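Review form for a predicted model. The reviewer records the input and the model, then writes brief findings.
Reviewer: anonymous (R2)
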Amino acid sequence: MLLNLSRQRYALRMASILEIKKLALDLPEKQRAILAANLLESLPGVLWDEDEGVAEALRRDADLDQNPEEAISLELLDDQIKNRRH
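Model under review:
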């Protein structure tokens, strides 16, 4: 009886997650990006970074703060990514 009740609760939670996912995927791209960013911000920070990717990102961010002229526009970045794919 208890196991059956647990399965029902699990099924209800999963249904709501699947419904949320479907609704989220129906959002325009910009709204999905905002939602994704908000969800990621709601998670705890990185506690362990095996490949030091976060440290590298922080170094690059600090470097851009010191040398803003080295930054490229989002449009140029998009163009470079598109050209790399072809």
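Findings: The mean pLDDT is 83.
Further findings: Residues 2-25 form the longest helix (24 residues).
Recommendation: see findings above.
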